[in-house]
Design a protein that fits this description.
Blueprint lengths: L4 E5 L3 H13 L6 E6 L3 E3 L4 H6 L8 E3 L9 E5 L2 E5 L4 E4 L2 E4 L2 E4 L3 E3 L7 H4 L1 E2 L3 H18 L11 E5 L3 H20 L8 E6 L10 H13 L2 E5 L1 E7 L2 E6 L5 E4 L2 E4 L3 E3 L1 H5 L9 E2 L5 E2 L2 E6 L4 E2 L1 E2 L4 E2 L4 H18 L15 E5 L5 E5 L2 E4 H28 L6
Parallel strand pairs: 1-2, 1-9, 2-5, 9-22, 11-18, 12-13, 12-18, 13-14, 20-23
Antiparallel strand pairs: 3-4, 6-7, 7-8, 10-19, 15-16, 16-17, 21-22, 24-25, 26-27, 27-28
Helix pairs in contact: 1-8, 1-9
This protein binds flavin-adenine dinucleotide.
Amino acid sequence: MKKPKIVILGAGYGGLMTTVRLQKQVGVNEADIVLVNKNDYHYETTWLHEASAGTLHHDRVRYDIRDVIDRSKVDFIQDTVVEIKKDEKKVILENGEVDYDYLVISLGGEPETFGIQGLKEYAFGITNVNSSRQLREHIEYQFATYNMEAEKNDTRLTIVVGGAGFTGIEFLGELTNRIPELCREYDIDPHKVKIVCVEAAPTVLPGFDPELVKYAVSQLERKGVEFLIGTAIKECTPEGIFVAKGDEEPYEIKAGTVVWAAGVRGNAIIEKSGFEAMRGRVKVTPELRVPGYEDVFVIGDSSLVINEEINRPYPPTAQISMQQGENVAKNLAKLIRNNQDLEPFEFDNKGTVCSLGENDAIGVVFGKKLTGAKASFMKKVIDNRSLFMIGGTGLLLKKGKFKVF
Ligand SMILES: Cc1cc2nc3c(=O)[nH]c(=O)nc-3n(C[C@H](O)[C@H](O)[C@H](O)COP(=O)(O)OP(=O)(O)OC[C@H]3O[C@@H](n4cnc5c(N)ncnc54)[C@H](O)[C@@H]3O)c2cc1C
């Protein structure tokens, strides 16, 4: 009898978790497992703010996919997904195609620019290893160029961060640690450097505990960040941004670097392949399947799961992606054994920790509020846990964060 073929698209948190769980739960004779990813490495998306600021080398945030998969059970294809032909049960890749019996889409998300003019062209993103490396190099280039110019252009040393959500705040935490080093390295007066964070919402870190938000803001302000809250970016240009508060007239902030860190939408492949989606995210069934396509699962940033308690979607996180991966692996193991009694996905929120740089953070873990070194320690525990869950002790020892204080 022909073995069922399970194809997993994307080797991020959700996709790799699905793969490593499946390879444990399914025998070689039970199913063919194929993993497709555009790079031969996995990157820790949740560490990209560090690589982007230059506080952690980009090689520390990635590892070889082949080191964590069981190659006797999983066929790894390094290629880029172009489109999913869901009615033909086929995935079109840049260099070929692959058919499937069951498909797991875990291609991650993309920055949501809300149609703001110029952002796609002129702002930097914190989305993958390439974009992080480019951002780090760009900031360094601005510092290196400053002292080469006869007529000093101080706006080279202005960095604007659009968005005071999780990614924006974590990046600011790292950046404010990196700037003193850069100033020393390039003989620049630290007073010349300006860091501005622009947020359209009425608060920093919307949804976070207000007491913790206050702590985060005061720590970052102390390190030189200027917050413009309730202020929207109207346009991004090669020279900086135009912002406005409410209906007020937009004004310009000249900046050598603009980083866009607000908003995530699903991977463009979702809409291109004709799946019904909200901002590129598929509202999945309780078993994480696409309504009407029982053989297709969507997990991670491209999926949309409603938190019934508040009737709003759960924010896209690594935590939920990994839990979805575990759930899908369990259900796929059932399906290939003709057991249709699938387990619905239930998110178990273990808490959230937002880093404010190497030794500082805020968070709520198992219902307890934490700040400072304790929260920062928990952040490292969380980072290490995800390595352990995917690659066991070997990966943890190779890539883990053990510098505690
Ligand atoms: C700076 C930053 C900090 C964050 N901090 C936290 C945190 O502390 N806690 C938390 O829970 N969440 C955090 N998040 C959010 C979290 O990183 C994402 O929600 C998570 O990475 C989503 O996982 P995923 O499996 O959907 O996709 P990803 O982990 O992004 O993986 C997607 C994979 O698909 C591959 N891929 C994409 N397109 C294609 C294609 N066309 N063909 C082939 N392969 C493709 C990519 O290369 C990648 O390997 C953070 C995000 C950022 C940017």
